[in-house]
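Appendix B: complex inputs.
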Amino acid sequence: MNPTAAILLIGDEILSGRTQDTNGNHLAKRLTEAGIDLKEIRVVPDDHATIVAALNALRHRYTHVFTSGGIGPTHDDITADAVAAAFGARISVREDARAILATHYANPDDLNPMRLRMARIPNGAALIDNPVSKAPGFSLDNVHVMAGVPAVFTAMVESLLPSLTGGAPLRSVSVRVEKPEGHVAAALADLAKAFPDVSIGSYPFVHEGIFGTNLVARSSDKNRLKQVETQFLTFR
Amino acid sequence: MNPTAAILLIGDEILSGRTQDTNGNHLAKRLTEAGIDLKEIRVVPDDHATIVAALNALRHRYTHVFTSGGIGPTHDDITADAVAAAFGARISVREDARAILATHYANPDDLNPMRLRMARIPNGAALIDNPVSKAPGFSLDNVHVMAGVPAVFTAMVESLLPSLTGGAPLRSVSVRVEKPEGHVAAALADLAKAFPDVSIGSYPFVHEGIFGTNLVARSSDKNRLKQVETQFLTFR
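Resulting structure:
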């Protein structure tokens, strides 16, 4: 059994529609490659009680919880405190995080009290390296806290992933068929019954007036995938 | 108080990272315009028990739940049955839905048993018009079930929204400041205290070597927004 995961995206700007999230999709792909099964994504607002409740719902259910957003220097950056509250951990400006942050500023005065908020790390947490803008993320138990800015988020994901134990990577094959989904649905259902160990899906598309279907199979077993792909090709 | 909402996105393809969801962002923007406060987005896999549990968690908590995905003709399209199960409603091929579906096919034989699955509608549900490819969505109580294909989803949203009662539309103003977030954080916190009725956020960016911040305020009160915008401009 592969380890499981949830992603918790934190931010009013996603729920208002102002921002199209891309961090979820990026991490989803990286987890699939790493053999960690992503089971849920949730988006919640910048609200302390809501974030704490979501963390406590997810961290007991999955091997890992990855969060994105709410760890900057401003008043609405409340994720670190919410994580501490969810675990009942103490939180304060930690010297190791403050020292890392200080290297980002030539003038020590630039590390003002608001920016120092980014060095607030719960007791017992391990820092996640941020090669882009220094301010670190952190892992507390199975919760991994990362920034919302995509350039920083993706850098933190690369810092973190090698330290997590994955399973067999999920592979996929995809075959494009220029027939509507309803034409292939019955044969596809039979195929899914014959290959219960392979996840078989179909994704209809309309392109230049053609109703077509992308057939997709997912499994960590290359040979089984190859067999399904051969079957897919007969649908054309 | 505005009505509230959650979006439930259903599909393994989003969790594997194969598909970047855009339906959530589209509906988030339309709900904001309509004065319906989006409070949560969840993505769950094509799994009956998981979909039922998510529906029951969300439909009691929010005024509306909007679902996307899993209502096509194939074996993994299980959303309609999951909605029926969540409500304890009976579900079968409904004559009104079958008649609509039939208009999509010149040859009656094309409405094969797998395609007829798309006419399975829970008892008591109202159909949602699909001008793109006929197969209807439906509303059962406060749960609104729509397709995952973006062209069809967006069309269904337009069919549905006029029938829902919204509140005062949430408006926003945005001011771009070419200063890093840590430079404006303290003044922004003071502003947020002075305008507790306005949601004030900041979104850092890095563009062509410049560290900048987009300041965003949201409120349904135009005059208060204007006052905050005037303050934002002094941050430049």
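The domain at 171-233 of chain A is CATH 3.30.70 (Alpha-Beta Plaits).
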